[in-house]
Amino acid sequence: MNRMLRALAVATIPAVLGAQDAPVVIRASAALDGRGGTLTNVSIVVVHGRIDRIEAGDAAPAGARIVDLRGRTVLPGLIDVHVHPTWYFNRQGRFHTRGDGDTPVQEMLAASANAYATLAAGFTTVQSIGSLEDRDLRDWIATQGLPGPRILTSLQPIMGGEPDQLREIVRERKQQGADVIKIFASASIRDGGKQTMTDAQLAAVCGEAKAQGLRTIVHAHSAESVRAAVNAGCTQVEHGVFVTQAELDLMAAKGVWFDPQCSLVFRNYLDHRANYDGIGNYNAEGFAAMERAIPLAAEGIRKAIATKGLKMVYGTDAVAGAHGRNAEDLVCRVQSAGQRPMDAIVSATSLSAQSLDLGASLGALAKGYDADIIAVDGDPVRDITALRRVSFVMKGGRIVRDDGRPGGK
Ligand SMILES: [Zn+2]
Questions:
Q1: Which domain holds residue 395?
Q2: pLDDT tens, residue by residue, 236-248
Q3: In terms of domains, do 211 and 300 share one?
Q4: Strands (E), 48-112
Q5: Ligand 1: distance of its center to the CA of 128 in Å?
Q6: Ligand 1 centroid to 71 CA: how many Å?
Q7: Coil, strand or helix at 353
């Protein structure tokens, strides 16, 4: 190769962008397909960022890089449909708020670190709900080589206003590049969780969003606020700590996605009390309310699991202190709420992908799907805590983490 050609070749190396060009073959002794099935002794052939095919035995196309994940459990990249990557603790160890002296650059660096921690923990797709900064974070990860999960975002949430103003805000969010609309229909759990938006307001937001082709995600704790969101035609209900069987049945009947949190968000606040204490409603009363929510949340999930036809997705509401620990609610669901491990994994893979309208490309190990593939040490179907031991992460065909086999190669 002459000098000029070599220079050209160097210049056109896709570097960290795009997928690896040579096929990659992942050898797996056990792979969960994200839909409830288990594959044994297979080769997953990845070409140009996608799963080209899955073959029995040891496939080895010419020129392929072989990645041996035998002895671990392989599964689709996990999905968390409710995170807050821009929330962080500043260098004084306090929850960052505007006015604490951090610059916009520092805010973005912190958000990038959170995104990286989330990806390294095996979460290859997240939905942030949400803040304006998510837009740049999402785009830099998608197109500029910043390591992080795929991000969908609501940008800033909608809190209130006259119905006409609300419809206008929905159209504005779409213009700004929102992937989804986030609405607060009830107060925070720290303030009792009562309904704060009227039925007419909810109908305006969810109706306009539907007309604009956007999904709607509604923060709702009280039973009445959940009912109002469902009746307004919204797409997904978040939290629902105070729901009764009637609202669970209603969501199931109307095909509304339900995203309850098991315990990570509450425990994270309680474990980081000193970092949050004294800011806004992070006070003695607020912490007591979160303490009380823990058994209620597990009980609610137990009921949700038993509700026929209810589509329960996986969202942790990861805030400052919780990024990278997103798998903890899967452990909680199995250990505290009695969910079958395989069902918990399906919830955080194919089911969550469907809720994002990405069920045809994400959340499963299947031909044609994006090559978002992780491996954990151990078998999460027998011991859900194996999800804490992520040792391999591939996103869109690129290996972003590979710790090697437990005990060395
Ligand atoms: Zn949240």
A1: 3-76+363-402
A2: 999 999 999 999 9
A3: yes
A4: 50-56, 65-68, 73-76, 78-83
A5: 8
A6: 36
A7: helix
